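ARCHIVE CARD
CATEGORY: sequence design from structure
SOURCE FIELD: tokenized fold
FIELD CONTENT:
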């Protein structure tokens, strides 16, 4: 049996309200050389019934219902990737949707550029009813090229050091072969595992950005992001990844001080919002890269104006 070019993985947990739109937007793709793997992490809504209705579709090769909740979206990613037979992987989050040409456009780019490990598109924000929202995280300008290609390390330095610019898995297609060199502990992160995962993929080759909105990123009350910010995970896990990036990029001493200052500013801002968690976390930072709190904050503040570090966006 010939393996499909693309493995599409839908990891679901309690998104029954959006599943039909999600899966239908995959089945309606203009590019058809793919398999569809449906995973459910022990949902408590009617997701199982929705997924079961698709299990006899010819594109669906696996429908797996966990008997026990894994507790991690990233463990579901891992399970899906291990099952995947395709050369390319699309993790199509269960509450999002896609333009009909998403796979056509992204597959074309990876086929054309063998040095590239990952390609992603822009995302149109939508609400729980599928209505377009004015929020725009891409900020494409009219004069931009349709496609931009970056060296992996340069992309990490310019776009991934301060935050995860690959902000939605559904907008990404990547080479499965890269998965085996991604940091194995990405699954240990509750919120920022995707940031570490994409860093691992980007480090292995070139990065392609398609400057068109071919993905629909749904915003709703049950998303993980607001809960993670409230619990401080965005700061705790994100700061840890920023520290790891210092070593990945082999930054110099001045650049390290700039990163340290950025982390301290983030943490102190969080402390104003949550005194107890903020104070607790600050006590864990006074070592290594983050020892010189006041000096690093001063250096970071100056560097925001002059960018001596060549790290500011």
């Amino acid at each position: 049996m010939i393996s499909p070019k693309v493995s599409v993985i839908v990891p679901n947990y309690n998104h029954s309200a959006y599943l039909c739109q999600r899966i239908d937007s995959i089945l309606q793709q203009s590019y058809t050389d793919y398999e569809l793997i449906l995973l459910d992490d022990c949902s408590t809504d009617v997701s199982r019934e929705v997924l079961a209705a698709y299990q006899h579709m010819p594109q669906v090769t696996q429908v797996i219902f966990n008997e026990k909740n894994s507790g991690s979206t990233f463990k579901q990613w891992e399970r899906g990737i291990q099952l995947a037979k395709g050369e390319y992987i699309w993790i199509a989050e269960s509450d999002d949707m896609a333009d009909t040409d998403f796979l056509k456009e992204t597959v074309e780019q990876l086929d054309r550029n063998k040095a590239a490990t990952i390609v992603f598109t822009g995302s149109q924000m939508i609400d729980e009813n599928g209505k377009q929202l004015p929020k725009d995280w891409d900020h494409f300008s009219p004069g931009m090229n349709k496609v931009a290609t970056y060296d992996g390390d340069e992309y990490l330095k310019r776009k991934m050091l301060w935050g995860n610019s690959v902000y939605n898995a559904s907008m990404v297609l990547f080479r499965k072969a890269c998965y085996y060199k991604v940091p194995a502990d990405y699954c240990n992160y509750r919120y920022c595992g995707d940031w570490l995962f994409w860093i691992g993929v980007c480090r292995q080759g070139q990065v392609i950005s398609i400057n068109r909105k071919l993905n629909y990123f749904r915003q709703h009350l049950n998303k993980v992001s607001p809960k993670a910010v409230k619990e401080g995970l965005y700061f705790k896990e994100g700061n840890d990844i920023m520290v790891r990036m210092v070593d990945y990029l082999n930054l110099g001493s001045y650049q390290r001080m700039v990163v340290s200052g950025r982390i301290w500013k983030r943490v102190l801002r969080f402390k104003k919002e949550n005194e107890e968690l903020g104070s607790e976390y600050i006590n864990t930072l006074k070592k290594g890269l983050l020892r010189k709190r006041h000096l690093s904050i001063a250096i970071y503040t100056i560097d925001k104006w002059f960018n001596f570090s060549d790290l500011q966006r």
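CARD ANNOTATION: The chain has eleven helices and nine strands. The beta strands are 6-12, 34-40, 60-65, 88-91, 97-98, 116-126, 147-150, 172-175, 206-218.
SHELF: design records, drawer C
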